[in-house]
Each structure stands twice: as structure tokens, then as C-alpha cells.
Amino acid sequence: MKPIVSKDSIVYFNDDCYTALNAYLEKSNHSKLFILVDSNTYEHCYARFMSQILGTYDIEVIEIEPGEINKNIETCTSIWTVLSEYGADRKSLMINLGGGVITDLGGFIACTYKRGINYINIPTSLLAMVDASVGGKTGVDLGNLKNMVGVISESEMVLVDTEYLGTLPVNQMCSGFAEMLKHGLIQDRNYWEKMSDLSKLTVDDLDQLIYDSVVIKNKIVTEDPTEQNIRKFLNFGHTLGHAIESFYLTHPEKPTLLHGEAIAIGMIMEGFLSKELLSVTETELTQMSTIILATFPKLNIDPKDHQEIIKLLIHDKKNEKGNIYFVLLNTIGDAKYNCKVSDKMILESFAYYASL
Predict the structure, then answer these.
(1) How many helices (H) and strands (E) does the chain have?
(2) pLDDT of 158-178, one tens digit each?
(3) For residue 67, how far is the Cα from the chain centroid?
């Protein structure tokens, strides 16, 4: 597959990944390599990664516990301290080997340590391959508020090696499908239709769909790298999805939600809002809801929690001057940003989701 070139980075796929990486390491003369992993990627992915590295380098491995709960400033502080203790300088390289938590967190740490060191993302989850590792967004959560602290700064390269997907449990694979479905809904009806029956996908189909998903996202972020206009499209499903994810993250008595599971709910609810406020048809909404629910079982959201979830919307990063803005759909494949939605209509979207 042909590498995908963005403004300041290149995404390589499968056979090209380690050829490109080894060539880069040989010529870049980094003083030390720091490989950031969590305990899962250390166990399941680290050996494969190291087996592909040619040459001898001064390498340190930094391992953290997995999960969104660890994507915070406290974890950053501990890693910054480790980097300092192990003599990391401005010629050091951070290699982030893991899912979205690792690529978001590791990118932010690299961008801020000594005012910035180079980093490379090697996403090992489907979600990170199609979303978190592409486009230069880095960051951490502030309490239960998603990605509130971060910077936009692209990695030296992204290596998408789909062999790592063989290590994932089913729910983690499904979490990534949510972002791929979103890419079709906001930008490409044909891609959405290709994604409409995941049960029929072959391995080759999946590789091509991952590639096409990255192409869609890269096209958007290359045109609008700092999210002034069309990059906001990528937040479809995320306004309500992030609020639901944040609420469940801080209520341990509730089920644990993966990012993609929360975004799937958000897409259905924001699809409903698109029908009510824009020009999505009833047929399109039914199709969207049916396809999403075929992969993501319905979550029973207690009506008593609705208002508390709505209160979290005020922290959404698209908001301006106290106004809450949504990304909605004119139709499948055509999105619109900066849409205002009343609390009454948001409550109706909860009711629609509950009715399915």
C-alpha cells in the first residue's frame, strides 16, 4: 500500500513499516530510544516490534498500566521523571507502541518534554490505527473530561502494522469500527456502504478499509490541521459520545465503556438530531441505527442520568462563547459543523436511543 503523506508526517502500512523505520533510525542518529508501552502491548506486541529492528541502539522501555483511567497528568509526570532520570535529551526519540491511550499520552509527553522531542506512533489497536495516531492530536484527560489538555503536533511517522490486530479482544476491534463507520458517515457514502456488513469482511478487506479510513481522515486534517473548520467533522458522535464516556468513567458502578462504544451511542443520537434539525431521512436514520447496533449492543442509560450527562457537554472542545456546538449530517457522507441543539432536543435523542 502506498504511504499516505500528511503535512509533517507519513503513514506507512504493513511491509513498508519497518523498512521505513530502520532507514529513519539509521540516518537520524538519535541519542537514545524510549519505547512507551502498557502491560498489554509489552506482553503481546513488544517482541514482534523488536524483532523488526535492525542495528544496535540504546533503548529503554517505559511500561504503564493500561486503560483510559491512566491517561492523565499524573502519569505524564511519572514518565517525564523517568525520562529525566534515564538521561533523555532533546535528541532522544519516543516510540509509542500501543492503542489510543499510549499514542495520545506518549505524543503529549514527547511534545512537552524539554519543549519537544521527536516521536513515532505504532498503533496496535484498530481504533488507534484509524483515529488516534493520525493527525497530530495528543493529550490527556482532566479528571473525567476527555482530552482537555494537549497539543497538535505530528509524529515523525506512523506505522500501521495490521499483524498487531491479532492480539486484540473482540470488543477492542469493535471499538475501532466505530471510528471507521464515522468516517463514512461524515465524508464518503460509498465507504459507509462498504462498512455496512462487517460480518462479511475478509482480512484483505479489512486492510483496505483501514487504509481508506486513514485516507479520509488525512484528507480532512491536511486541509484543516488546527480544527478551525472541517476538521470538526471528525467529532461527529463525539459531543454526546464523550459526555457519556466521561460520565461512565467516573461512576464505577456503571458498565465500563470503551471509546468506540460510547461514540457508537453518540452517532445514533446525533443521527437522530440530524434528522430532526437537518435533512437526514427517516430511512437513513433507521439504516444508521441498525448497522451501528449490529456491532454495538444497546446500552440501557438510566433516564435519571440524562441531565448529569448533558451538564458535561459544556466542556466540549468545540464550544465557543458558552455555546454548545454539534457536528450533524445533512445526509450520509455530508456533514455540517457548528450546529446548535437545545437541551429539549438532546433529551429527545436519549429517548430515541432508548426506543430502539
Answers:
(1) 14, 11
(2) 999 999 999 899 999 999 999
(3) 14
Find how far residue 301's CA is from the centre of its chain: 23
Q: What does the CA dihedral 58, 63, 69, 74 come to, rounded to 10 degrees?
A: -60
How distant, in Å, are the alpha carbons of 92, 212, 216, 338, 349 from that of 190?
Answer: 43, 11, 12, 25, 26
Residue 317: the pLDDT is 73
Model's pTM, two decimal places?
A: 0.92
Could you give all domains of the chain from N- to C-terminal order, each with its CATH number? 4-168 (3.40.50.1970), 171-355 (1.20.1090.10)
CA distance 148 to 241: 15
Looking at the chain, list the stretches that DSSP marks H as alpha helix, in order from N- to C-terminal side. Answer: 15-28, 39-44, 46-51, 73-85, 100-112, 126-127, 170-187, 189-194, 203-223, 238-249, 259-277, 282-295, 306-311, 343-355
